[in-house]
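OP here, attaching both records as promised.
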Amino acid sequence: MVEAEEAVELFETAQPGQPVVEQVLKRAGDGWFPPFDRGSGCCTTVDDAEVHPAELCFWGFTRD
């Protein structure tokens, strides 16, 4: 799970909403976004319009 400090670094907010997460993850293949190793992944909560956790977002790389 991405911690609040990491979320701010990655998403520029500790409580990213769906539009922010989608925009940032589109750039994930550019090599600047963790995880950097094959066979690893990350996740964060995605907040709704009222800034309540509404869903989880997972991303990463397969080992193969």
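Record two, same layout:
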Amino acid sequence: MTRDDLFDRYQTAAAAHRTHRDACTPCSDTSRCPTGQQLYEVFARLQDAYLNRQRQQRR
């Protein structure tokens, strides 16, 4: 996995989460339907991985 691949997957997951949240009435920034929760967890996991990699590269 390259850095660009991780960044692309992180950005794609963020967009998928935003798109779902904007179209799903039960979803908000603090409450999510099961699908919204799954999309958020994928986004958060990829974001954490990307940010951790950025921090490690700065050392």
